[in-house]
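Below is a filled-in request sheet from our internal design queue. Each sheet records the structural input a requester submitted and the sequence that came back. We keep these sheets so that new team members can see what a complete request looks like end to end.

REQUESTER: design group, bay 2
PRIORITY: normal
MODE: inverse folding
CHAIN LENGTH: 798
BACKBONE (tokenized):
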């Protein structure tokens, strides 16, 4: 095959890490990671597989003890016992050392694995929870991944089946060192590459018979409504669908429908001018029929009778087909302006080669083919098993539109990190069936902007579009604010994109990655870490009737936390119910947190490094953040072509926020930038105390104050990125408490309850200054649980 389809692998392990017998080989890859092979003929596999690319780990320190009953292998973390016979539950066991569990930290071959879950191939037609495949981490300290049946990668870029009857397992015995386990999984299987910047914006997707003019009119309406997008997803009706039945169903297609899109290049160019990249949907299963523009070329290459109009069968097990598939079916469309492909394979995991999953073949080769011209590779397809993290982005399938589906998606996304799969793209708002519920769609959109990829999607039903103006005003406003927020976050998201690549940590992580010994971290399954600076607790249930707020149970780790939307400050180290109107969901930034956002949110602006940054700083602890930027499009990031801008917040004699000079390839970013810094956690008096310096010289700035968030806003005009910006404030001006009375009034004002009860509650809140006493008095009033809970959250937050 062509060189572009060959991948770098280093599959041979060090001989010094191998313990080999007549029919077995055990490779100690790390002190926690063991490869276990059994083969009757004593021949073992040293080539790369679909899952594993790199076994060249450094020398590991271990001991082998041989005896009459077999061997034992000791590392500092695991203890293996093996009778040197065919793998069996009585002959092979591994114990994870350490005080993890009295009974459950020992694995016997063949036993069921009790891990924290991985992910699944698809959510197609799922209405709520579905079973998950295995991941690599467990509260019991171990998990096992079976690589016995995956294909072998050949040096020429193609694959061949594994030898039958062998066993090839990987034992991950990392205890509760979850980050280390994940890092070594990536070390074994390959990194997740960076996404191009445009992929982090909003995607518009719908299964609908758009024409060029109808689509462009919709994009222009989005612009007028200030609803930004960076990706246009064109579902299957871009190609000919209503065809002569002798050519099949029309589900597969590669020829533009010129009735809908008379000039495809013009259409794609118009989208590009709006800052939108385009992906086309393709269902490859039915091959190439005789009505297609490229049929003759494909038929001749594949030796098909053109005169008889025999179809060119879809044959992902054939390297000849796969190369022609790209050359004749995809490259011409890309020359017209198509940016990447949505591979919508729904036909199962079998083909003519036993054990070869067609989905993996399409994912692997589409990804490799997409970088042939030097651009950053990307594809869009379903999950095809461990190792799929190398081929972002994941399409989770056709989601049913119900609260149950929404409630499962955060957990499903979070646990995917346990198998290294960090870039799921869901049908935000749901795709099909189900029912219309405006509140649910708003909540789904609010979750969507904190999911890895934000893609609105819906079916062809005339009643099922996700345009915000199709919903009640409160939902429309909430959706619009969320979509704008997503684009505002792109500087932060792009830095987390780099962290995912460099540090091997997905953007969305379960809470137990940072707090593995905290029981509560495992109980809040839908709550997650969103990068380094935020905790997100999505709202996935309807509002409480009459109170107009939805409830979500949140666990806050030790420390001080700020809700970035409401400005409320919370003491950590506890679990509490949080109540939110349809305007927001709980998103918490830690004290000392720094969030680099931007006001430049249009599709064109979002794909470039910004001229303006809106930096949110949260008082109460020291903190730092390194903003990462590069060319956004190529693979030069792998060679270190980037810019790092460090930001620091310190509280000593005074509060000081500093933006340091940018370092690296500064030609990649604007020469000058404007900054609006939001210093949250300060009284109004702090505006007078603020002093601003550029390279040590006092400068003037526009100052204002956000009463609701208790934040000082400092707007600094254009400053060179090679200069140091410093904002100093008096720590005596730190805010002392939340605006309890104001927040209680706002809650009671919108609640649909008795006026006399509102008056009684608010009068009590105004008079009582001791929050503990106030909470007790409210409790004595026998209020409904949620009315009391909503007021208690506000009163006891800090």
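RETURNED SEQUENCE:
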């Amino acid at each position: 095959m062509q060189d572009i389809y060959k991948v770098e692998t280093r599959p041979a392990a060090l001989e010094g890490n191998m313990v080999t017998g007549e029919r077995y080989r055990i490779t100690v890859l790390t002190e926690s990671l063991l490869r276990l092979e059994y083969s009757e003929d004593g021949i073992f596999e040293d080539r790369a597989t679909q899952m594993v690319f790199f076994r060249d780990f450094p020398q590991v320190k271990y001991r082998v003890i041989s005896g009459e009953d077999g061997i034992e292998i000791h590392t500092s973390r695991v203890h293996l016992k093996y009778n040197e016979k065919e793998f069996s539950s009585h002959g092979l066991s591994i114990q994870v050392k350490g005080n993890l569990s009295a009974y459950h930290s020992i694995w016997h071959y063949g036993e069921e694995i009790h891990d924290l879950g991985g992910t699944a191939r698809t959510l197609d037609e799922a209405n709520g929870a579905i079973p998950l495949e295995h991941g690599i981490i467990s509260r019991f300290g171990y998990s096992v991944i079976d690589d016995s049946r995956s294909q072998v990668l050949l040096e020429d870029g193609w694959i061949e089946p594994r030898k039958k009857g062998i066993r090839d397992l990987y034992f991950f015995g990392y205890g509760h060192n979850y980050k280390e386990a994940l890092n070594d999984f990536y070390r074994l299987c390959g990194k997740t590459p960076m996404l191009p910047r445009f992929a982090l914006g909003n995607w518009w997707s719908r299964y609908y018979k758009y024409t060029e003019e109808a689509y462009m009119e919709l994009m222009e309406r989005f612009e007028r409504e200030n609803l930004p997008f960076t990706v246009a997803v064109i579902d299957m009706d871009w190609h000919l669908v209503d065809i002569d039945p002798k050519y099949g169903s029309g589900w597969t297609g590669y020829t533009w429908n010129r009735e809908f899109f008379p000039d495809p290049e013009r259409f794609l160019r118009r989208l590009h001018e709006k800052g939108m990249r385009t992906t086309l949907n393709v269902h490859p299963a039915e091959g190439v029929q005789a009505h297609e523009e490229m049929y003759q070329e494909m038929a001749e290459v594949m030796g098909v009778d053109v005169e008889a109009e025999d179809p060119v069968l879809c044959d992902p097990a054939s390297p000849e087909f796969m190369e022609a598939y790209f050359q004749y079916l995809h490259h011409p469309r890309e020359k017209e302006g198509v940016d990447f492909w949505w591979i919508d394979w729904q036909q199962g995991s079998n083909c003519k080669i036993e054990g070869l999953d067609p989905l993996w073949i399409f994912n692997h080769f589409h990804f490799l083919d997409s970088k042939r011209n030097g651009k950053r590779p990307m594809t869009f397809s379903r999950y095809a098993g461990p190792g799929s993290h190398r081929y972002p982005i994941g399409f989770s399938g056709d989601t049913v539109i119900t609260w149950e589906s929404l409630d499962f998606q955060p957990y499903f996304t979070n646990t995917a990190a346990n198998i290294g799969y960090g870039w799921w793209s869901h049908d935000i708002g749901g795709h099909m069936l189900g029912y219309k519920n405006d509140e649910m769609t708003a909540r789904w959109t609010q979750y969507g902007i904190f999911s890895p990829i934000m893609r609105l999607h819906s079916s062809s039903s005339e009643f099922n579009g996700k345009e915000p103006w199709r919903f009640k005003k409160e939902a429309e406003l909430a959706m619009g604010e969320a979509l704008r927020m997503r684009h505002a976050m792109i500087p932060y998201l792009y830095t987390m994109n780099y962290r995912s690549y460099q540090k091997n940590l997905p953007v969305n992580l379960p809470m137990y990655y940072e707090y593995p010994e905290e029981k509560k971290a495992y109980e809040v399954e839908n709550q997650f870490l969103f990068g380094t600076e935020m905790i997100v607790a999505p709202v996935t249930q309807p509002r409480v009737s009459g109170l107009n707020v939805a409830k979500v149970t949140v666990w806050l780790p030790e420390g001080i936390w700020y809700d970035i939307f409401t400005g409320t400050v919370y003491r950590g180290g506890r679990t509490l119910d949080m109540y939110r109107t349809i305007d927001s969901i709980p998103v918490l930034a830690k004290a000392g947190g720094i969030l680099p956002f931007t006001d430049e949110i249009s599709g064109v602006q979002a794909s470039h490094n910004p001229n303006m940054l809106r930096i949110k700083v949260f008082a109460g602890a020291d903190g730092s953040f390194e903003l990462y930027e590069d060319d956004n499009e190529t693979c030069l990031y792998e060679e270190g072509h980037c810019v790092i801008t460090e930001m620091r917040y310190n509280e000593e004699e005074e509060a000081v926020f500093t933006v340091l000079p940018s370092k690296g390839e500064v030609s990649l970013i604007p020469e000058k930038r404007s900054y609006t810094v939001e210093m949250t956690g300060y009284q109004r008096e702090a505006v007078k105390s603020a002093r601003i310096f550029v390279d040590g010289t006092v400068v003037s700035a526009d100052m204002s104050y956000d009463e609701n968030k208790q934040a000082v806003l400092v707007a600094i005009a254009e400053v060179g990125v090679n200069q140091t910006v410093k904002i100093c404030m008096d720590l005596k001006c730190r805010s002392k408490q939340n605006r309890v009375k104001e927040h209680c009034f706002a809650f009671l004002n919108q609640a649909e309850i008795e006026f006399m009860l509102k008056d009684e509650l608010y009068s009590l809140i105004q008079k009582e200054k001791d929050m503990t006493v106030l909470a007790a008095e409210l409790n004595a009033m026998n209020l409904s649980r949620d009315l009391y809970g909503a007021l208690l959250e506000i009163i006891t937050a800090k």
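SHEET NOTES:
- The first strand starts at residue 18 and ends at 20.
- The CA atoms of residues 118 and 135 lie 4 Å apart.
FILED BY: M.R.
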